[in-house]
Amino acid sequence: MLAVRDTSTRERKSLDGLWRFALDAAGAGHHEGWSDGLPAAAREMPVPASYNDVFPGAALHDHVGDAWYETTVRVPARWAGERIVLRFGSATHRAVVWVDGTRVAEHEGGYTPFEADVSDVVQPGAEARVVVVVNNVLTWQSIPPGYVEDTPDGPRQRYFHDFFNYAGIHRSVWLYTTPRAHVRDITVVTGLDGSTGTVAYEIEAGGGEGLDVHVALHDAAGAEVARASGSGGELEVADVHPWKPGEGYLYDLRVELRGDGDEVAVDAYTLPIGIRTVQVDGTRFLINGEPFYFRGFGKHEDSAVRGKGHDDVFMVHDFALLDWLGANSFRTSHYPYAEEVLEYADRHGIVVIDETAAVGLNMGLAGGIFGAQGFTTFSEQTVNDATQEVHRQAIRELIARDKNHPCVVLWSITNEPESDTPGSRAYFAPLAAEARRLDASRPVGFVNVMLAPPDKDVISDLFDVLMLNRYYGWYVDTGDLAAAERHLEDELDAWVDKHGKPIIMTEYGADTVGGLHGITPVPWNEEYQTALLEMSHRVFDRVDAVVGEQIWNFADFATTSGIMRVDGNKKGVFTRDRRPKAATAHLRRRWRGTP
Ligand code: GCB
């Protein structure tokens, strides 16, 4: 799916700003015709943002059910004759959209874009009313899963993942044009052969019968370096300048649809691409044929008041802090991040492990950490075939959106699922195969939980790399870093013996209250977080197969309430407002070599 861009043939108009907003816990809006306009009592709500923390009070914070949004947009008169599309970067977790009372789109899944062709619904020159109902309910058939408990005080959303269930219109909304005949999709796969780069491309056109496809590749200085025509083919780039970690060199692939002999494009779209390769070779992870070591974090899209609303200020600041520490990578734990984030990572040479929102498919873990529920993970009544279909669709949408980003080097199809039962193998084998079918150019992985060490895990053979979340020194061996060091190393050695695949440590860390110090490192103080990271790093340095360390977490983040969390998860090396904890000094030394 192409990102929204202005080009010589396309124009876009932002719908971001203040929308009218009303909660609808009872689901009345559907019967009372809110799709034609919200009740007069509606208040104003910023888009993009999570709605939960914008106004005080539990009604909004803990809302379960529908929330309605409405805005109007003037459709420029000059857009007459164009194809006009309404596009949402995301709406969490599902949405239905009406334009002037006509239902134009619905979408399941809170972290991927969707759009509707509204050319026949809007009038160029006139205003159009856009109404969206966003629903935040998690069920056994949603990704991520959850369930609603009916209590005497109303419905309560329960879920099995450790971040707050923020909801709303989290990313930008655009109205944009394309010509009626248009470039619908582009897929590139790049290669390197010595100093020659290759770009295999496929172009899908919509309504472009009789038009020819022309592609031209331009380097960062704007010079054309290759061209071709036809809807598929391969470009060769002599003296290629590869995309590399730390150096996000991009070419522009200019795609045009043109009539026979015409010089002027009917539609033009420019896709920035990076030429690089990714491979797994034994226990090494290679980018451009060279061993790559991941240094960085699992992150969250999370900040005060905005919740999960995309914000360019936090995005640029977070990347600046990654750079300040010498990090070279992060994982989009635990859902696809905003497209702007991937684009920024492309331009700045930051390596990304791209994850679906399939988190919390593990009742063993949910029972152990977040309070026993007694559910079975994979069953007719819980995570079942219908869930698997939603999960498959989530993988499709992630890959469709992010397949052309050079920063993305690895797909993570799920975080910490149950992976030690026959049911888990039956569930994941087809999903791993689906990810491979959709993209043969990148390795596929999943993130393994502590409850499924090498002697219990039954799915790691389906994947190319091992991604491990381990909390030695925190959830186990709490406060005993000597025992933690032994146990961590023993387990890593066992993984190496069993699988011989590269190991990326995708989570390790300690909850740490910013500002809490102790002369002795003990759990919760800043000294202990530093000591736990130092201990982990000593172990990683002794195990050759470890090809990456991504600390949990970049910054403190909001979670659901519970006795395990004090104002959220505190495993950040930055506080939620991005103040450094003491561990950042260790990281700067280790990752940047800065004293
Ligand atoms: C995990 C999860 C992550 C949690 C983290 C923790 O294993 O993947 O979502 O936040 O542990 O802090 O417990």
Q: What's this entry about, in short?
A:
With 595 residues, the protein is α/β, with parallel strands linked by helices. It has helices at 58-61, 312-325, 339-348, 363-370, 385-402, 422-438, 481-499, 526-542, 583-592; strands spanning 12-14, 17-24, 43-47, 66-74, 83-88, 94-99, 102-108, 114-117, 127-135, 146-151, 154-159, 173-178, 182-193, 196-206, 212-218, 224-229, 232-237, 251-258, 267-273, 278-281, 284-287, 290-291, 294-298, 329-331, 351-355, 408-415, 444-448, 466-469, 503-507, 546-552.
Write the layout of secondary structure elements.
Elements: E1 12-14, E2 17-24, E3 43-47, H1 58-61, E4 66-74, E5 83-88, E6 94-99, E7 102-108, E8 114-117, E9 127-135, E10 146-151, E11 154-159, E12 173-178, E13 182-193, E14 196-206, E15 212-218, E16 224-229, E17 232-237, E18 251-258, E19 267-273, E20 278-281, E21 284-287, E22 290-291, E23 294-298, H2 312-325, E24 329-331, H3 339-348, E25 351-355, H4 363-370, H5 385-402, E26 408-415, H6 422-438, E27 444-448, E28 466-469, H7 481-499, E29 503-507, H8 526-542, E30 546-552, H9 583-592
Parallel strand pairs: 23-24, 23-30, 24-25, 25-26, 26-27, 27-28, 28-29, 29-30
Antiparallel strand pairs: 1-12, 2-3, 2-4, 4-9, 5-8, 5-12, 6-7, 6-9, 10-11, 13-14, 14-17, 15-16, 15-18, 18-19, 20-21, 21-22
Helix pairs in contact: 2-3, 5-6, 7-8
The site of (2S,3S,4S,5R)-3,4,5-trihydroxy-6-oxo-oxane-2-carboxylic acid (GCB) has 9 residues, from loops.
